[in-house]
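Below is one such protein, fold included:
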Amino acid sequence: ASALPTSMTKYDISASKLYSITSNTKVVVNALQDDVTIYWIVQSGEEEDVLENLLSRYAALSDHITVETRNPDEYPTFAAQYTDETVENNSLVVPCGERSRYIAFDEIYVEETSAYSYSYSTSFDGEGAITSAIDYVTREDLPKLYTLTGHGEADLTSTFQSAVEGQNMEVESLSLLIQESVPEDADCLLLNGPESDLSQEEAEAIRAYLDQGGDLIVLTDPAQELSLIHI
């Protein structure tokens, strides 16, 4: 009985399903063709229970996933191969081939601040961080998001940037005042709060990109009266 995986011996009765694996993770894991090792960096006796349970469920999902513990007291330089950050207990490293991702403990337990009550809340995002890391290190090509520039566009917010990174998208700026067309490797084009209209040539380049099946996100201030040349 002790050899059975955690998924068969423990039931998740937590309100927020801390111990469950979602269908999104199962899709990513079931598609694995390469072996992935999740290194759990933690001192002996400091193992976090919820994370330990979650890691055991990943290991039970696929023969391609292995979980190994690295005690920093025994392997003091191990994490330095993958990050120059100060590594806390219960952080993770997920390498595969030439790629790797370091998952800090504060990416597993995410602390959020309320703008209204000035209070803090902590949420567990272990599955989101681990699945994103597995997807990142095993993908051949990462999707690319281009952000249009040249019209006073706003910078990406930290929340949006984190969401994009969580989807393993590469972000690159694009000026259609310099380039004549949207690059062929663009999976999505973002217009983030432009403060002036696009030129006719820019609009035609974007329209051609959309006609070829491209995706476009436009974020604008509803108080502004911009035509954007009616893309």
